[in-house]
Structures are given as C-alpha cells and as structure tokens.
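Help wanted!
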Amino acid sequence: MPTVKLIEYDEASPEVRAIYDDIRVTRKTDYINNFWKALANHPPTLARVWRDLKEVMAPGRLDPLTKEMIAIAVSATTGCAYCINSHTAAAKKLGMDNEMLGELMAVVAMFNTTNKLAEGYQVEPDVFPPLE
Amino acid sequence: MPTVKLIEYDEASPEVRAIYDDIRVTRKTDYINNFWKALANHPPTLARVWRDLKEVMAPGRLDPLTKEMIAIAVSATTGCAYCINSHTAAAKKLGMDNEMLGELMAVVAMFNTTNKLAEGYQVEPDVFPPLE
Amino acid sequence: MPTVKLIEYDEASPEVRAIYDDIRVTRKTDYINNFWKALANHPPTLARVWRDLKEVMAPGRLDPLTKEMIAIAVSATTGCAYCINSHTAAAKKLGMDNEMLGELMAVVAMFNTTNKLAEGYQVEPDVFPPLE
Amino acid sequence: MPTVKLIEYDEASPEVRAIYDDIRVTRKTDYINNFWKALANHPPTLARVWRDLKEVMAPGRLDPLTKEMIAIAVSATTGCAYCINSHTAAAKKLGMDNEMLGELMAVVAMFNTTNKLAEGYQVEPDVFPPLE
Amino acid sequence: MPTVKLIEYDEASPEVRAIYDDIRVTRKTDYINNFWKALANHPPTLARVWRDLKEVMAPGRLDPLTKEMIAIAVSATTGCAYCINSHTAAAKKLGMDNEMLGELMAVVAMFNTTNKLAEGYQVEPDVFPPLE
Amino acid sequence: MPTVKLIEYDEASPEVRAIYDDIRVTRKTDYINNFWKALANHPPTLARVWRDLKEVMAPGRLDPLTKEMIAIAVSATTGCAYCINSHTAAAKKLGMDNEMLGELMAVVAMFNTTNKLAEGYQVEPDVFPPLE
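Answered by r_m:
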C-alpha cells in the first residue's frame, strides 16, 4: 500500500493538472501512472522528475527501446517491482517481444553474476585508458 | 588487493590453459583479464562462467554493443569498479563514444532515481497484461 | 507471506513476553509490530535487536524525527517495503507531514542518482582531511 | 581510475564553463569537485544534475545539514566511496562533528540490520493509513 | 504479477518439457517451481540456468544445506522475496529448523551492519596475504 | 581514505582501551583491525557492535567457519571491499582453502543470478507453509 494518497486529476491543484496534461499529450494516452499520482504529493518533485524524464528519454544517440531496456536492466538489478512492471510494459509498446526480453534478462543475470565474482575475489581493474 | 593469487598462463593447469586459449582465440587478443586469472583458482567456475558468457554474448536479438551497455548499466547500479572499467573498455572497442556513454549514464541515473521514488512511496504497480 | 509464524503474546515464552512488555511500555502502545513477532522465533535475536534499537534511538545529538527520516532514507534505498511502511508511520507520529516526506524523498532520489553517476564514471574521491 | 577524462576549466566549452562558474558562485569556493569534471563529458547531464541539486538542496522544510546527513546515509547504504567522502566533508562544513557522525552511522547500521531481518523473514507490513 | 506467462508442462515445447522432466527426476518431485515456468519463456536461459544450478549444487566441499543457507543469506541481502521463500523451503527440507534459521538471520543481519559501518567510515582494508 | 582518524591504543580513552583489550583476549591476537579503530570514534557504537559480534559469533547451531563463509557471501553481495578482505582472512584461519572459497563464490554468484531473474520476471512465490 502506498504511504501517500494517489492524487487524481479531479482533486489536483492547477500546477499538478498542468503536468498531468503534459504527460497525457507527450505520451498520447489519457492514462496517468500511479507513480505520477504519488509524486503529486510534492509538486516540485513531480515537476522535476517529469522534466528530467522528458529530457533523458528524448531522441538522442540511443534509441527509445534501448533506453527502456536499460531501465529494465536497472530495475531488475535493484529489484523495484513497480519499475520492472512499468518499463516492461513500455518496452513492449516499443516493440520488445518475449525473446528480446529473455535475451535482456540473460544479459542482466550474467553480469550480476560476474559483478559478484569480481567483488568476491576483489579483482583489481585491468588498466585501460579513459574514454575520450 | 585480490583475495586469491592471479593464475598466469605459465603456471596454469592444462584445463585452465585450454580455457585461456579459447578466450584468446574468441576475443582475438593475447590479453587475459585479471577476472579470468582470479576465477582460475576454481577451474569449474572458470569453465562455467566462460561458457555462459560466450552463450549470452553470442549474436542474437540484441547487438553486442547494446549488451555491453547493459553490462555497464548493471555494473554502475551495483557499483562494481572492476566491472565498470572492463565493460566501458569493451563497449568503447565496439564503437561507444563519450556522448553515448553520457547518454547511457543519464538513463542509468534517471531510473535509479525513479526506482527509489517508487519504492520510497511504495507505489503499487499499474496493471498491465504479461508479455506473450 | 512470512517464512516463520508470528508469535502472539499469549503463546510466547516468559522471556519473549518480557520483551513485548518492555516494547509496550517504551512505545506507550499495546500494539506489537509484526517485525517483533517474527523475531520472537529466535529469542536471542529479538532481545539483541530490541536492546540495540532502544540504545540507538535514545535521545542524543540527532533528534528522534531526524533518526526516523534517516531510517526512511535507508529503507527506500534498499527497497525494504516493510521498513518503509513502518518508519513512515513512525515519522508521521513524530510530526513529519506530506511536504517533509516529499522533500526527504527528493533528497534520497537525488543522491541515489549522483551515487550512480560517481560510480558509473568511477570518479576518484577529492582529497579531504578526516573528521576529527 | 575514472573511465572518462576530467574536464578542467581551461579546456571546457563555454557552456560547461558557465556551469562551473555557477558552481563556484553558489558554493563560494573556487574548487570544482571531480564529480562535475567527469559529468562535463556530457554537458546536458552536467547541466541537469547541477540544476536538480540546486533545487533539492535549497532551503526548505529540512535544513541543509539534515540533507547532507541523509546523503551520507544513502551513500553508506549503497557503498559509494566517492559520495561518502564528499558528503562527509560537506556535512562537516555545516557543523557535523565526530559524535554526530557516529550517531548517524549507528542509525544507518541499525536500520540496514532491521531491513535485512524484515526481508529475511518476509514480514508483512503492519497496516497503517497513508500520509495525508 | 509476473511480466511473462508461466509456461505449463502441457503447453511447453519438447525442449522445455525435457528440462521440466529432468527437474522432476533430479528433485524427486512433480512440482515445477514458478521460477522455471517463467524462464521457459526463453528456452536457452532455462537450459543454462538449470544446467548451472545442477553443477553448483552438486556434492562438493560444502554440503547442500550450507549451500541453501548461503542462498538465503544472499537473497535476504538483496531482498528477493521469491528467492527467500523458495530457499527457506528448500533448506527446511534439508533439515534447517527454526533456531538455525534464527541464527542464520542473526549472522546476515550482523554483517550487513558491519558492512555499512566499514563503508560509511571508508575504513581501509587491513593487509592480509591472498589465499593460496 | 577513512573519513575519521583511526584511534590507536595509546591515544584511546580507558573505555575504548577496555574494549580493545577484550578484542585481543577474545581473538588471541594483539592485532586490532582498522574497523574497530574507526568505530572507536564513537565509543557507544564500538561497544555495541563488539558486544553483538561476540554474541552472534559464539558457538551455536552453526559452526564458526559456516558463519564466516556467510559473512563472505553477504559482503560479496553488497560489494564491501573491507569486509570481503577481513572475512576471507578470518575464514582462512578457520580452515577454508582455495577450493572451498571457489565453491562458495560459485554459490554466491549463482544465487545473485537467480535473484535477478526472479525479480526481472516478477515471479510470484510458490506457496510454502511457514517454518515451525
């Protein structure tokens, strides 16, 4: 159960409604995820996170589907149930099928394993030059 | 400092040498990462992890660069220094430049933030059908 | 579902009942949280954790509300649902309102992001003298 | 070793310099932390993180020292060495002494323990109403 | 709710059925855990994880109960509800009673605390020689 | 670099010296680990953690080597370098050899992988009765 009330559109302040409206227009759907309705309890956080998300998910060098799959990788690694659900649904909309998810999960599982082995043995980094 | 000795080729058993040879051929380099030299302390683990890695990183529905970037995302999220270094170097070899890494980091940072907000407020998952 | 039975007062051993009694007196409530009822399956752990908690939460240099908000920050970062719920309720009793929780969440989210960026780029610590 | 070059003021683009200037003015110091010099490899991320940080750390319902102590709590929980160092230094500047840090560490350690016990036994949340 | 359909025996491909059959024979039970039914969405991952698990859990230097208790320790530390449940049930079958689980939980809780204190103060490792 | 000074015996208060003395007698060594010298900055924490550790590591249903190996499993999973080093050294003293460490690491790596797969697919727990 959430620790705060979810703020519905009808009971939201004009400031929050404006953000909900922008979410709807940007995402081309009337649906407002529970995440935003929880953040609406603190409008400055709602405004900042939505603004950041729009910036980070805007077209760039990585395509939107890759970004959503990275979001799944992060969320599976931290174990955030809400996030795994919402990013899996979002990636599916962008074309991820069951086999791609399986391959993604295999990669995430593989590198969580090697991470623990590298830590567990305290292996020292190989020397590579920084990226330029 | 590693908690085990790194096993060099010359002191390795024939079983371990065969794996080192396969790593060299597969990766087209003579360099054996410290990670493998640490795992060589337990040959069944060395064999299993290398076999798994070859399977998981083989050509599939996700391209090799995407897989390496997911490896960076996982490693930045868990905070494994060894892993971040080696996967960043590997992704660079596959064509990741500084701007792509920046965009990747922005995505990783963004979703670690939203993960904590979703957890912190205990937001309940929106209802989506499972992937088929 | 818990992996152990919750031990109710009536079925508890005298040793466990004495701790439940102390929890009730200290917290000025008859309610015993599920957490303690689970720990009661291993009385030495119940005794140690309760004793430690009383010590750590006693009046000191940090006030009780700050301590509860730090507990929320820790629990949101590790993603422990039980803990987030109970510490949010406890902080609320001590005066935390919705806006303060929002500000706390914003701080937690912010530094989880910067943590991942610092790790992801493997930034080396700036040099500061130790605290004296 | 960082995976990117640290961008010094003299080699920075005008866009990055403007942010460095703002950091200097806001923080009343010429010193630019390594963190910002690493982020400068991706100017949009540098700009966004600095903007967010200023917003989140601005005077509000929680005082600046509490916010820095929460940053230490988050960073000790995730184990980010860079972050622990810089937030401990920042909190010290704001008046945290050794005893306060000790009390903070005790609280962080306590709740990481109870988090693992609550998870380990899969204790179900007590029922509390959401914050309003 | 899982993000994929659980694949039942009757609707499984021959490849997946062969693995389900091997799980049943190896574990001497008809019951197939939900975990395997989810992995069956990506047969190569199902095959790899099952093969690895059989190898890792085979008789060796550590006995099966110790291995299951380590699995509980890992799962309580990462907070994976599914895993805590299934490894606690498996350890119980192998003879773990309530008091042993309590002692295990106490150890897990203890070292999660000391981990955070060591990180929080950034204590430098004592110098020990590597294991040989 | 630690964020606090390490307190040496000669500069320690009588209260801290008494604990150092007890550590030396209990562990049958003059060596005081850096961990305790850091905790000595906050004597109540030093006293509590040492008292708890003695209780938790005392002879019980799990033998000391198993407890140290669980400590390694926890520390490899959280990635605490200090802790991995000290618990590996302690387990070695109690008889853990290189092959046992290899097997332990294999188990830790295996279950970190299955943890992420169970989370990544959001698999629902199989239904098991609680331990009694």
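OP: Thanks! One thing I noticed: Residues 60-122 of chain F form a domain with the AhpD-like fold (CATH 1.20.1290.10).
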